Fold this sequence. Notes:
By secondary structure, this protein is an alpha+beta fold. It has one domain (about 10-90). It has 3 helices and 4 strands; from the N terminus they run ββαββαα. Strands 1-2-3-4 form a 4-stranded antiparallel β-sheet.
Amino acid sequence: xxxxxxxxxxxxxxxxxxxxxxxxxxxxxxxxxxxxxxxxxxxxxxxxxxxxxxxxxxxxxxxxxxxxxxxxxxxxxxxxxxxxxxxxxxxxxxxxxxxx
Length: 100
């Protein structure tokens, strides 16, 4: 079965590769979030921190689920703290550009 942009009731919890934290990917209606006039029909939600980001397509939402440090400020700060403890300088790292 193929899940397309009109399909609802897609709801999945995964563990982010970067942080190990659970991330929910789901439709705005199912998550009871504002769809922003259709611009944000699909969402990622960081379960532990409650931060969320909306996307136009399910494909984008699925790709962002693996990298919560790009949209969850708390995950980003935790990763920076871990890398600082390990002696890594994250200020030299570049974020990848992601089409919207």
